[in-house]
């Protein structure tokens, strides 16, 4: 999959033509002595600070940048952020930071915690929804202990949505975009204003749809993978008194993505006569309606409500945040089809999930500028979740002869109830104007009650229909088994498994920050963080995952404020790493999932980033990350084909000790340039180009050759016109101009060498975008 010189050359030429060919030579002499970079404010410490004075490895991306570059979701955004990746898979969305991410089991919380307006979003599919009117996104690398709590062992992502404050003038903005290759249309509208001096209101709406998708079903020529989504948000900021500000929002998301999107590929693959990763597959979901009540695809409904109160007690600030989230997810796919030349006619499978969460946080922050500053707080979270994934494997005539039945049925049901309470404190001792010590800890107490079971069997004649419901899962497998028995199937359920998993941990953090001068800062940080254990959807109990992270960072402002240069060295030691693997089952007809703790893993490396306002028309930026992420000990991994010589400690497993973690390329980099040129008194030409590089990496939990993504180079670029007063803009935005087919995640399908399922990121896209502000 390595890019050919021809592809890279074509991409560079196209980027050059779109982004930099229009640069007038006269502007090259207009160096701007007094120009300064925009100061980017973040809230990673629960106070507003600039990126350059925040003692952690952090990348902040503005909402304007996301919109102007047609970056619509976290997966698109992650490709330009070294040591950060987001990829879709059949088991969930895989989020990785510095080579560390959650394994392949749906019971896992993410190792990278996601927060939207300060409210925790633990389910992996909550990363899928597109951005709607964001103010900024903050990516925090490394263990987050005190301010972000449980389940942020690798880092965290904080999305802050835009608000209209009391006193702001009326404003409205409409953005429309059209992707010329696949026909996707997007429309975003934002309206805000202050009906009174004490109230600011804002409404945002976004629609995506009408496209064809970029996957082709060779069976019938249909195009699949199109997105159809509607997102709405209403927010209000109310100055109730001189000392009290209330902020609230309600947002609703309805997201759909069509088709069976996982490609089966590789030797002995079952994707018709193709078996290649090429945005094409053979799919016949004719029997999917027996286990799924929609067309093949992904369906998400999400509702979030947040209310925040800020009370100012003198120079102190007391903040209370209430959050509510209601999340529903459905996924149905025909994962493979052998056209009747193998044992299987197909693999029709589905996944149903609901998640409901209520949370509350109370913080008290002291004034800044004192010798000793502090923040204390308490947090409570209550959540309930349910999952079920009925699957159907119809057999060909050969398969029926081998097994004596027309097809097989398999599923599990899984419910969980969580209660979590924690208290935290962070103090800053300013030893002098240049030296400060920041110390904090968080105590967590969590109780996770889990119950589940598995059921499976075979049918003798007509396929019995079973559409899962939360009610049947509430009684675990009883309702499903009875339904199948009534349909003439032979089904057996395992005894109910589960229990209570308790977490009681103290997570400390210590930072020493030294201002070398007014424009440079050096810091050292050590932190310990924990990710809770529990029970897998297959019944395995696994322990808590913990990490001790060390970090030394340098932050500097150069060229009288026109440039920045930052560097971070890090070392993270993970213990009881939570991993999932698939091993052959005893009868050789498929795979069983096992979930356990891998022992230890180490991620270490170097991150460097910088930006330079070279002139009043040219901005340059660059970032590069060097990563060494390996298992110190992992003796119960699944086995890739041909890896029998790596025999693990459990029969059917392999020993991956000393090998790289998945989604952990050794080198990632991003180099970009943005130019703005005044061509008339009222109009500017805007251009940009970026080159994104990634070294090769594994994409599955087996470290298999077939699941390896080769090194690649992507190029993004844009060119457009905008008014000088910023009321309108028209852009042509090209992404992945080298047309790289990049594998984000993959997994082994069956235990007898039936190929891999792979999930590709988007191919080349070119979008025309127009924006008008009222």
Question: What is the structure about, briefly put?
Answer:
By secondary structure, the chain is mainly beta. It has six helices and 46 strands.
Any overview of this molecule?
With 774 residues, this protein is mainly β. The strands form nine sheets. It has a 24-stranded antiparallel beta sheet that branches. A five-stranded mixed beta sheet has the order 3-9-10-7-8. Strand 32 (545-558) and strand 33 form a beta hairpin. It is globular and about 80 Å long. 50% of the residues are buried. Mean pLDDT is 86; it is low at 1-34.
Which secondary structure elements does this structure contain, and how are they paired or packed?
Elements: H1 5-20, E1 41-42, E2 49-50, E3 58-62, H2 63-68, H3 74-78, E4 84-88, E5 93-97, E6 100-101, E7 112-116, E8 119-121, E9 134-141, E10 155-161, E11 171-179, E12 185-196, E13 199-209, E14 215-217, E15 223-224, E16 227-241, E17 244-258, E18 263-265, E19 280-281, E20 297-313, E21 316-334, E22 348-365, E23 372-388, E24 391-394, H4 397-403, E25 407-430, E26 435-459, H5 470-474, H6 478-486, E27 489-493, E28 497-517, E29 520-531, E30 534-535, E31 541-542, E32 545-558, E33 563-575, E34 578-584, E35 591-597, E36 600-613, E37 618-633, E38 667-678, E39 683-694, E40 697-698, E41 708-709, E42 712-723, E43 728-735, E44 743-748, E45 756-760, E46 765-773
Parallel strand pairs: 7-10, 14-19
Antiparallel strand pairs: 1-2, 3-9, 4-5, 5-6, 7-8, 9-10, 11-12, 11-46, 12-13, 13-16, 14-15, 16-17, 17-20, 18-45, 20-21, 21-22, 22-23, 22-24, 23-25, 24-25, 25-26, 26-27, 26-28, 28-29, 29-32, 30-31, 32-33, 33-36, 34-35, 36-37, 37-38, 38-39, 39-42, 40-41, 42-43, 43-46, 44-45
